[in-house]
Amino acid sequence: MILINGESKAHIEISDRGFQYGDGLFETIEVRDDQPVFLERHLARLNSGCRRLHIPCPDAELLRLEAKELCRRWHTHRRAVLKIIVTRGSGGRGYRQPDAIHPTRVLSLHPYPDYPETYSERGVVARFCATRLGLNPALAGIKHLNRLEQVMARAEWSEPDIQEGLMLDVNDYVIEGTMTNLFYVKNNSLYTAELVQSGVAGIMRGIITALSVDHGLPVIEHRFSKDELLSADEAFVCNSIIGVWPIKQIETAHFSVGPVTQRIQSWLDKFARNDCMEAG
Amino acid sequence: MILINGESKAHIEISDRGFQYGDGLFETIEVRDDQPVFLERHLARLNSGCRRLHIPCPDAELLRLEAKELCRRWHTHRRAVLKIIVTRGSGGRGYRQPDAIHPTRVLSLHPYPDYPETYSERGVVARFCATRLGLNPALAGIKHLNRLEQVMARAEWSEPDIQEGLMLDVNDYVIEGTMTNLFYVKNNSLYTAELVQSGVAGIMRGIITALSVDHGLPVIEHRFSKDELLSADEAFVCNSIIGVWPIKQIETAHFSVGPVTQRIQSWLDKFARNDCMEAG
């Protein structure tokens, strides 16, 4: 089920700059009981990403209405995934953008992926990817449509018992998973990569940071190596669709699902329920 | 005029991974007297780019036939631009590619841009862009669809008397123009950036390198700074559509259109005419 600029259709002009250059952004949002979860945060990030790329962001109220309309129409699904793509639209001359930008907005609903419940409870297995994240402060943090690095990294393994690949940047610092942000726990503090040169500043990452600080758990954004990660007390990956998956194994290193990760999961559950109640 | 997988149409499924992730490559080819110029070289680069991204490349003979069919249908235009896009097609789960990849091929013809003749003869004005090229050896050299850096750089200026923006990488080395490769001449040698961490290895760059070596002009690929470029005897930018544009000015530094650049232009003219005759 797809809305392109408010119309039900499934095709886009090939001249769209999203297709030509990856000139746009996206959001991937969990839908629970017909409600897009943390919608306002996603819309705020979309807006800030558009500002950084100088794309006029579609009106938040319009996106809100279309998102809710789409969810209502598909209400037989208890859980789903809403994807919002905004591109710089068509036109311009080569890389040069047109004088008047008419952005394209695409909202689409997808089945919720059938991840086993055990992933959240008992943890997942991760590996390190050989594909590195390039460095570019101008694009770091933005959930833009230039995702070849993630595609290349995800293509490195097909074993079904490995659930996520961890990506290093070209300087060998650990940054994130192919589709997730990464945290680790050491001596009752929470650590995650600073995303100033690469990476996507995930909504779930932001919420976890805020909740942890609120609950008195220090959160440190810094640069860290594989070895620092492997000597952690606990580690987990997160995104808006999966929530939090504890990591039980990275290659040959084993971790137990620890108390800090479990505490964060319970803060998050409560917080998400409140968000749904407010939205409903 | 557009052919998508052999059919005349102008729209692509939004599920195409080219739109979702910029998961694909492209070629931009000059068409002269109904003939795509240097077509075999473009098809060879497309093939090698596909191999690097693990996309099965559409059959060269098929692309050749479709390219020529498109040019014939549009034969009223003496000159045109043929663009070929190949993506990983639709399917897969998130970044993960589908088990069976059915690539999408899009061939489209566009009017030749109306650049004044003076650009080739008397040179162009260039500026340095603030937007940097990120570093990633896995993607360096490939003409892939992740082009946000170029879009951002090209959006930095709108003065019509500046024809190209030169891009540095995040380490301050000069790499290329937003839509061109860059060469400079110093003491009768030709210099250009090594494209091991960023940049696009242009067809015209390859031809100029080969022709220069054939004619006894040494070509050195290396890392160079703004200052080294600004102290050059001559400089020029090139691509498959514009050929060679001498640079007459970079910000406040002035250059004259020198004998080495002119010699390269004449080698290139002759070489392109031969290619057209062979293709015709």
Overall description:
Two copies of one chain form a homodimer. Chain A is an alpha+beta fold. Chain A has two domains: about 1-110, D-amino Acid Aminotransferase, Chain A, domain 1 (2-Layer Sandwich), CATH 3.30.470.10; about 120-280, D-amino Acid Aminotransferase, Chain A, domain 2, CATH 3.20.10.10. Helix content of chain A is about 30%, strand content about 30%. The first copy, chain A, is built from eight helices and 16 strands. Chain A has helices at about 15-20, 40-55, 60-75, 120, 150-155, 205-215, 225-230, 260-280, and strands at about 1-5, 5-10, 10-15, 25-30, 35, 80-85, 105-110, 125-130, 165-170, 175, 180-185, 190-195, 220, 235-240, 245-250, 255. In chain A, the strands form two sheets. In chain A, strands 8, 9, 10, 11, 12, 13, 14, 15 and 16 form a nine-stranded mixed sheet that branches. Chain A is globular, with a radius of gyration of 19 Å. The model of chain A has no long low-confidence stretch (mean pLDDT about 95). Chains A, B: Pathway: Cofactor biosynthesis; tetrahydrofolate biosynthesis; 4-aminobenzoate from chorismate: step 2/2. Chains A, B: Its EC number is 4.1.3.38. Chains A, B: This is Aminodeoxychorismate lyase.
